[in-house]
Amino acid sequence: MKIVDARVVLTSPGRNFVTLRVETDEGVTGLGDATLNGRELAVVGYLRDHVVPLLLGTDPHRIEDTWQSLYRGAYWRRGPVTMAAIAAVDVALWDIKAKVAGLPLYQLLGGASRERVRTYGHASGRDLPELFDSIRARLAEGYPAIRVQTGVPGLERVYGVHHLSAGHGVTPDGARPVVEDWDTGAYLRSLPGVFDAVRQEFGPELVLLHDAHHRLTPIQAARLGKDLEPYDLFWLEDCTPAENQDGLRLVRRHTTTPLAIGEVFNTVFDYQTLVGEQLIDYVRSAVTHFGGVSPLRKLFDFAAQHQIKSAIHGPEDISPVGMAAAIHLDLAIHNFGIQEYAGHTALTHEVFPHAYTFTDGYLHPGEAPGLGIELDEELASAHPYEPAYLPINRLQDGTIHDW
Ligand code: KDG
Ligand code: MG
Question: Which of 120, 148, 263 to mutate to test the pocket of ligand 1 (most atoms within 8 A of CB)?
Fold first, then answer.
């Protein structure tokens, strides 16, 4: 079997997605997600100009060898652009292999370790009444676990809070990311009260999470983790910009609030200290940004040796192709923790018809051979790329702040 064609499809059915389609001489095709939110065109160019020419004529069954050739052969290792491009190839080749085998991908990864995949959804509000409504809406959709984000007193525009976030887009001239506000002191003072109110309203059993979006220093994160302990969070996510892995030692020494990190990481080397010293409880990398199913499986096996579980990143900017790959892995691995599932627009589901299902807060990859996902290229082409960035945030004096 040989790869005879590979092409990149860029579409925006509500937001931008980058998809690689690999075609073989036997008519079997595979799909992979390479979406890198706000930097999509860089991955398109990397794939089109530097990866696709290397794939033509090669054997799609040699997944590991192809992965190692793309990773080691480039000389320039790691980085989100490179690893998203390699991820798309890896996932497309797994899709092809599983289709040829006539099996859903999870069967090739060892078979199901569970019946279904537990998820968490997003709730947010400018104030407590709006937040409570949002939590009730997620509960009505069946979510068994909920991430809670709120407004911060004194801040007009806050990331991750519906109605307050300036959102994913560009300034009116179409050239720059929109700007949001940040004040760490106000955030640290207000958040414990929010969780206190949520516990009083919804009781002790509701599974609650919170994402700090990399905004804190280690000592601030240590304080927040401690302050949140009475509210029994499932996790505190991205408490610091964790490329400073050593800083997590300080956080860990001060709090028993479980920690989740890694959605911006792209290789196992980002996790060496965090996992090796058991400084976190959940690894958050996405199939799409970590080089694909092959390396993420290895990360989960490394994490398992340290009693750390999976928690694959699943926001709207992971395409349904990346989501499908995640769900197959979630079903197969033993040390599964939870899967983030923000869902997609109805149009996105039409552009990417899929076998995976979301029922009562749980996902299942379905039984279709391969990933169980298609791409309607005609519909995709009717919704072309639109420039968009993640917002940035600035302090009141104008200083740009960490994500
Ligand atoms: O592209 C960035 C988003 O995916 C990210 O900000 C969402 O933090 C996020 C999460 O946990 O889903
Ligand atoms: Mg996050």
Answer: 263
Residue 185: in which H helix or E strand, if any? helix 184-202
- Write out pLDDT tens, residues 1-48: 999 999 999 999 999 999 999 999 999 999 999 999 999 999 999 999
Q: Name which residue sits closest to atom 2 of ligand 1, judged by CA.
A: 37
User: What's the pTM?
Assistant: 0.97
Q: Which CATH superfamily is domain 108-368+390-401 in?
A: Enolase-like C-terminal domain (3.20.20.120)
Tell me the per-residue pLDDT of 347-366, one tens digit each, with 9 for 90 and over.
999 999 999 999 999 999 99
- DSSP string covering 218-250: HHHHHHHHHHHGGG--SEEE--S-TTSTTHHHH
| Sole residue written with tokens 């300034």 | 171
> What number of other Cβ atoms are within 10 A of residue 141's Cβ?
12
Taking the mean position of all CA atoms in its chain, how far away is CA 13? 19
CATH topology of domain 3-104: Enolase-like; domain 1 (3.30.390)
